[in-house]
Specification:
The complex is a heterodimer of chains A (108) and B (119).
Chain A (H helix, E strand, L loop, with lengths): L3 E4 L2 E4 L5 E11 L4 E6 L6 E5 L3 E2 L7 E14 L9 E8 L2 E4 L3 E5 L1
Parallel strand pairs in A: 2-10
Antiparallel strand pairs in A: 1-3, 3-7, 4-5, 4-8, 5-6, 8-9, 8-10
Chain B lengths: L2 E4 L3 E3 L5 E8 L6 E8 L6 E7 L5 E3 L7 E6 L4 E6 L8 E9 L7 E2 L3 E5 L2
Parallel strand pairs in B: 2-11
Antiparallel strand pairs in B: 1-3, 3-8, 4-5, 4-9, 5-6, 7-8, 9-10, 9-11
Classes of the chains: A mainly beta (108), B mainly beta (119).
Chain lengths: 108, 119
Amino acid sequence: EIVLTQSPGTLSLSPGERATLSCRASQSVRTSFLAWYQQKPGQAPRLLIYGASSRATGFPDRFSGSGSGTDFTLTISRLEPEDFAVYYCQQFGSSQWTFGQGTKVEIK
Amino acid sequence: QVQLVQSGAEVKKPGASVKVSCKASGYTFTGYYMHWVRQAPGQGLEWMGRINLQSGGTNYAQKFQGSVTMTRDTSTRTAYLEMSGLRSDDTAVYYCARRFSGQYYFDYWGQGTLVTVSS
């Protein structure tokens, strides 16, 4: 099973600042198999990025994904109040899906 | 529009079974897989398995093999997750999530069903 490790666990930032979230895999992951989700309290997760770098419908271009192999990054260029949430990376490998443990982006 | 509507909250005693439903609308039901993901209180997301809505074929996470059964009813466009031998650490919100064949992400999610296991 491929393990995804997200860092940091919590990111305390102010609106307007840049957020950089890391997702590291225990084995190489195909970029087409890497996704990111946003989850707000009391809500279901929402697809944010797929194929490591393609933005899902409804998300603005301040969100971007990058990376390959074992290292992937989600960047929010300028945080808006509605971006404070928990972000999860997800991968597919060996017929199994796994999630990272999540990064909480909180208001400083 | 695509909707996945799940059944309501459940309270069960340890050792009992529970069956959660996920009714789909707004798209061609059998063209997709349905995955189930759970989230314990204050914790992260855990993938449980998936069902091919066309064939009924399943693939479960190793942790859940033997305790989970995923089925579907194409006539009512509903997917089901049944769990047996419930324990207190099965207390969680259970989500269904749709995936198109050949894609590797979940593009629509149900609203979640809280299952509480308590004596």
